[in-house]
Write a structure and sequence with these properties.
Distance between the termini: 13 Å
Largest sheet: 8 strands, mixed
Strand order of the largest sheet: 4-3-2-5-6-7-10-11
GO molecular function: ubiquitin-like modifier activating enzyme activity
Pfam families: ThiF (PF00899)
Organism: Bacteroides uniformis
Strand content: 15-25%
Oligomer: single chain
Protein name: PRTRC system ThiF family protein
Helix content: 25-40%
Number of helices: 7
CATH topology: Rossmann fold
Number of domains: 1
Order of helices and strands: EHEHEHEEHEEEHHHEEE
CATH class: Alpha Beta
CATH architecture: 3-Layer(aba) Sandwich
InterPro entries: PRTRC_ThiF, ThiF_NAD_FAD-bd, Ubiquitin-activating_enz
Radius of gyration: 18 Å
């Protein structure tokens, strides 16, 4: 029997736009934000309230970002999150929010309005992922679901030519409907359960000074390819109300994509 995960019912029929936090607005985050804007427009055209996105990133645009990330020469010196969100808002007519800061690393520093239904991490370090899970896993459970209830965490990570996307459930279990056609799966592993990051030594390579140097660390289209594939998982969640795969491994050297079944 085929295994599937049914999307949390709140996301399918919310009272407000579904809240999304994107943490990191660089190579992957800038691409994911554009994907979320397209998803928002499509959902609203289908009668859904759409999305409300907040982007967190304290970094500014440098010469090395132009070309590999979605920034141009006129963006130099601007904060990444503010630059991208302003552009998206002007283009699509949204009122999404930019935070020129890191996402809080401990729960006591997080305001309730900073908790989103879907959190998407596009960061390049291990600590941010561990800190985020320490926050999300400790959010008190509630008897009802609203736009400040954490439901899913999607993480993007990559090396120079390979990477992965993993969508996990924040609650221990998302309630699943009774099905005679499928084996339903209410719990999806988050990235920190796939990879034991606590055992991995953090390597800080530092910022790149030029595009050529940046390309030695990450290939030109690895970020955008991962972003498209990851956003497609979210699209299927909303469009079909279920997913058979909650992640994937990508290798641009071999041109292979290996899905992760639920």
């Amino acid at each position: 029997m085929k295994r599937v995960h049914y999307t949390d019912s709140y996301l399918m029929n919310p009272q407000h736009p579904v809240t999304v936090n994107i943490i990191g607005a660089g190579g992957t985050g800038s691409q994911v934000l554009t994907g979320m804007a397209r998803l928002d427009v499509t959902l609203r055209a289908l009668g859904h309230p759409g999305l409300f996105v907040t982007v967190y990133d304290p970094d500014i645009v440098t010469d090395a970002n132009i070309g590999r990330q979605l920034f141009g020469p006129s963006d130099l010196g601007l904060n990444k999150s503010q630059c991208l969100v302003t552009r998206i808002n002007n283009f699509f007519g949204n009122d999404w929010k930019a935070e020129a800061s890191f996402y809080p690393s401990v729960l006591k520093e997080v305001k309730r309005t900073e908790i989103a239904n879907i959190t998407i991490t596009c960061t390049d370090n291990i600590k941010s992922r561990l800190d985020l899970w320490n926050v999300l896993a400790k959010v008190p459970s509630s008897s009802y679901t609203d736009n400040n209830t954490p439901l899913y965490w999607m993480d993007f990570g990559n090396t120079k030519t390979a990477g992965q996307v993993v969508l996990g459930t924040v609650p221990k279990k998302i309630k699943q409907p009774v099905s005679t056609m499928y084996e339903t799966v209410g719990s999806l592993k988050v990235i920190t359960r796939f990879v034991k990051y606590a055992r991995v030594k953090e390597v800080d390579s530092g910022p790149s000074c030029s595009l050529a140097e940046a390309l030695e660390k990450q290939d030109l289209f690895i970020n955008s390819t991962l972003a498209q594939l990851g956003c497609n998982i979210l699209w299927k969640m909303f469009r079909h109300g279920m997913i058979e795969h909650h992640g994937l491994f990508l290798n641009l050297e071999t041109m292979k994509v290996n899905p992760i079944g639920v």
